[in-house]
Amino acid sequence: MSDKVPSSRPTVAAAAKGGTDEPPPSTTAPANGGAKKTHLYNPTSRPTYRPQPHHRNRPRRNYCCCFCCWTILIILILILLAAITGTVLYVLYRPHRPSFTLASFRIHRLNLTTSADSASSHLSTLFNLTISSKNPNAYLSFSYDPFTVSCVSSDGNVFLGNGTLPAFFSGSKSETTFRGVAVATSSDVDAETMNGLRPELKKKKGFLLKVEMDTRVMVKMGSLKSKKVGIRVTCDGIKGLGPKGKSPAVANVFGAKCEVDLRIKIWRWTF
């Protein structure tokens, strides 16, 4: 038998083409239809550092929210306790406002004179009042500062005189009366005031007046004392006539009613 000797033509042909024994390139396309990817490992590469967000303000916000909530809750509790205390005191003691009465009003002088040239006018008045104060409460007492008494026209535009009442203490279920309270003035008035007052003084049925009394009062209940608050007593509905001769004229006070109102002063304003 004769041995087959391999042909050297492929080797020669390969050497003629490139001189290498590498296999021919594959003509088959990759399975994914794209380019061939090469994954290289770099031992010196590190993952990118991404800093995490810090939430340091959350505890502070929580503390602020808790503080506000507790503050509001405490205020609401205090308001509730004050309302309950006030209700209990009202049910037990039944507090009432003090009452004032204008018992009499005498007009001794009420003169409105005008100069010869009508350039100026002068008003001169003198009134005598009797005022009573009554405390209807059984457990409350009132301590009054001195009163400032003013007499004005019913619309409040014309000032007719002023006077004072002394300070006094009004105990429970008590009544205090002041007689001979003088209210007077002697001042010049402008033309507008004169033109508004003169027709009122000529009315046959009388002109309307009112008395205003301002003071500060402190309320006492046993050993408890309140702060002093301002009050105004307004007695409206007084009908007066000018005096004739030397005898004083007696004003009609049967329809007069006196009301007591609180006077709250905030900076420059009084309510």
UniProtKB/TrEMBL annotation:
Keywords per UniProt: Membrane, Transmembrane, Transmembrane helix
Matches recorded under InterPro entries: LEA_2, NDR1-like
Organism, scientific name: Gossypium stocksii
Membrane topology: Single-pass membrane protein
Localization, UniProt: Membrane
Pfam families in UniProt: LEA_2
Transmembrane segments: 63-93
Domain of life: Eukaryota
Full protein name: Late embryogenesis abundant protein LEA-2 subgroup domain-containing protein
Signal peptide residue numbers: none
Entry GO terms, CC: plasma membrane
GO biological-process terms attached to the record: defense response to other organism
Domain Late embryogenesis abundant protein LEA-2 subgroup: 130-235
Region Disordered, annotated ranges: 1-58
Primary location group: membrane
Keyword Secreted: no
